[in-house]
Protein: ABC transporter ATP-binding protein
Amino acid sequence: MIRAENLTKRYGDTTVVQDLSFTVHPGAVTGFLGPNGAGKSTTLRMILGLDAPTRGHATVDGRPYARHTAPLTRVGALLEARSTHPGRSARHHLTALALTHGIPRSRVDRVLALAGLTQVADKRVKGFSLGMGQRLGIAAALLGDPATVVLDEPVNGLDPEGVLWIRTLLKSLAAEGRTVLVSSHLMSEMALTADHLIVIGKGRLLADTTVDALVRASGGAAVKVVTPEPDRLRDLLPGAGITVEAPDTLLVTGPDAPEIGRTAAAHGLPLHELTPQAASLEQAFMALTHDSVEYQGAPA
Ligand SMILES: Nc1ncnc2c1ncn2[C@@H]1O[C@H](COP(=O)(O)OP(=O)(O)OP(=O)(O)O)[C@@H](O)[C@H]1O
Structure:
């Protein structure tokens, strides 16, 4: 379990993380979301003892990261910077890491297989693609069989197969009862991967919630209704939010699809289509973080 309490980080006059408190529970994938520059990496670095908080503190399983005697067996982390020696092979890199951290050598083959690197295990890392380097970083994070896994933007640079692999891996790590915290600035990716979301903007907590609850909080889903008598339907749904999409097509918020169907049927109003629309998660995320985005494009 990861706990952040009132985490605050200032660089000079700039506060990049402000009074951030949250808990990341085991057995679920928790997405750590925010626009570019929101403070995600800084927060993860404070959790991992790489940056000192200006105020507040973070613990993993009840202790600050640095106070764990064998941190790699407690917490596996992938940060954005690569830290492999380019002349070494993947196997050599992982073996050196295992030996210096008291991790059995047998774990090296295990994590090479888990990361899909067995075939290239003896090739020099300098010939690795971005995706292979990312897989090696994840193999290193899992080397100590840690109960907590922290990954900063793990899908960066991965091809679609790699993205799917990460998604499946994260879910299986959580299903094994591990605590999994994964940062991203892509809502669409997190929607497919995460069970829980922590959203920050300009260093502040904006939401600590589930994907479903975020959609509902952002105004919920609309229902697309196609009818040859849109004006009559409008009159029959006085409290509803109605947007006209086309002369015969309305987007209705408020009443759900069964309620609209019942009302129409009770008044003999023909419906040609009645389709619940899942609110776009990307829209929900943008609505939530709108005021926290540093640079916004002006509308065309
Ligand atoms: N060492 C530093 N000195 C000064 N400012 C810093 C330092 N590290 C980060 N920042 C600033 O802190 C803010 C948050 O950066 P951070 O990398 O934590 O954000 P992020 O949410 O991870 O962004 P991204 O999605 O772009 O990686 C940014 O404005 C960044 O410029």
